[in-house]
Amino acid sequence: MTSSRRDFLRSLGIGAAAGAAVQWPLGEVPAAYASESRAAGPAGFIRLDSNENAYGPSPKVADAVRSALGLVNRYAFKKYDEVTEQIAHSHGVKPQQVLFACGSTEILRVAACAFLGSGRQLMHAVPTFEAIQDSAQVLGSGVVSIPLRPDFAHDVGQMLSRMGSTTGLVYVCNPNNPTASITPRNELVSFIEKLPANTHVVIDEAYHHYASPSGMYQSFIDEPVADERVIVARTFSKVYGLAGLRLGYAVASPKVIEKMRAFLTRDTLNSIVAEVAGVALNDTQAVKDFIKRNSDDRQEFFNAAMLRMLMPVDSHANFVLTNVQHPVVEVIEHFRKHNILIGRHFPPLDNYMRVSLGTPSDMKTFWQVWDMLPWAKKFMHH
Question: What is the pLDDT of residue 53?
Fold first, then answer.
């Protein structure tokens, strides 16, 4: 960074955030409501691009991570049953209904392996999280993509109309990524009831904790349906702040779990997360605090967006999708030039920007850089 560039950023009050990477040091307990950025990535970028918990893990979980460092030279074989039982207990299900893996992305992969393959089809919405589509294509499966409705919910009616005997798996991300929108619970229940007998459905609840329970949204773990074809995926990467430790899991019927287990990569549990998972699940107050913090940060984002005459999509996650009425690739590049990473382009949403919620200082910097867009002030008067 040149000295003139550095001085300019300091004049905006953003030099510290944009000029150096601020990461969680193992020697310090991360404060849940710290004012400094914890989203800053390599080369000083503020990272608002991957829907992470910008505040890091809770103090209790951070302590558990530090305590587990002495075990990194050991395999975690003996912890497999314990971690399974901890997850099962937290949801009030049997251990035989739980399968954990190296992040929920691997859960999606093994579901694809179990229920797809040559001659079978995956059905999903577009845009949505693409990992399971990638796995389906590697397996030689067909992919049927159904556009979201104008309200950004899954178009379950169109999905049903495109169902066939070769539809092996349906993927529903709820709340959806990248739109942060939800599909109403009653529509999903009705949809599942009408699926062909040989079709399974993965409901990805990675952002579950950020969606307030209501008549519109209820978890399919907390309020299960009596259907053995339903697989619910969860992750420790979001509200628990453990994206880097890679732990996700599925809750389903024992029969489905065993079919998926056959395709699981061996030895994916690392020794640190094996010690930390139970602590994170039991730290319910921290989860409540993170949910409240996210709700406050989300409202602040909406307030700032409205002041600028932007209209974000109603968010039920820890990120927000906003129509910027300009090509988003230009906006992405503008932020990158000012050391901020935001979500990538998600076709066909060519004018929509996805922003992960950061700390207050992150978001202050974000809006300062937004206001530097050549058309930003003119846009505010439209």
Answer: 97
The number of angstroms, rounded, from the C-alpha of 269 to the middle of its chain's C-alpha atoms is 20
Q: From CA 336, how far away is CA 39, in angstroms rounded?
A: 14
SS3 state of residue 131: helix
Looking at the fold, whether 90 and 154 belong to one and the same domain comes out as yes
Question: For all residues of the chain together, what is the average pLDDT?
Answer: 89
348 upstream amide cis, omega within 30 of 0: yes
Residue that finishes a domain, picked among 247, 282, 317:
282
Residues 271 and 358 in one domain: no
**What's the confidence (pLDDT) of residue 377?**
73
The verdict on 164 and 182 lying in the same domain is yes
Rounded Cα–Cα distance for residues 61 and 84 (Å): 18
- Tally of CB atoms within 10 A around 375: 12
**What is the C-alpha end-to-end distance of the chain, expressed in Å?**
35
What is the rounded average pLDDT of the residues 93-114?
97
Residue 34 sits in the same domain as residue 85 = no
User: What's 332's domain CATH number?
Assistant: 3.90.1150.10
Distance of CA 180 to the CA centre of its chain: 9
Same domain, 318 and 212: no
Using DSSP bridges, classify how beta strands 121-126 and 46-48 pair: parallel, antiparallel or unpaired. unpaired
181 and 114, same domain (yes or no): yes
Q: Which of 257, 248, 2 is nearest to 115 (CA)?
A: 257
End residue of a domain, out of 239, 258, 282: 282
Counted domains in the chain:
2
Rounded Cα gap, residues 294 and 36, in angstroms: 16
What does the pLDDT look like over 244-279, one tens digit per residue?
999 999 999 999 999 999 999 988 899 999 999 999
Q: Which residues of 219-251 are buried (b: 16+ CB within 10 A; e: fewer)?
A: bbbeebeeeebbbbbbbbbbbbbbbebbbbbbb
- What's the CA gap between 90 and 67, in Å, rounded? 23
The amino acid that residue 201 corresponds to is V
What is the Cα–Cα distance from 131 to 101, expressed in whole angstroms?
A: 15
Is the pTM of the predicted complex or chain greater than 0.85? yes
Counting every residue, how long is the chain? 382
Please give the residue range of the domain that contains residue 293. 3-57+285-380
Answer yes or no: do 131 and 242 share one domain. yes
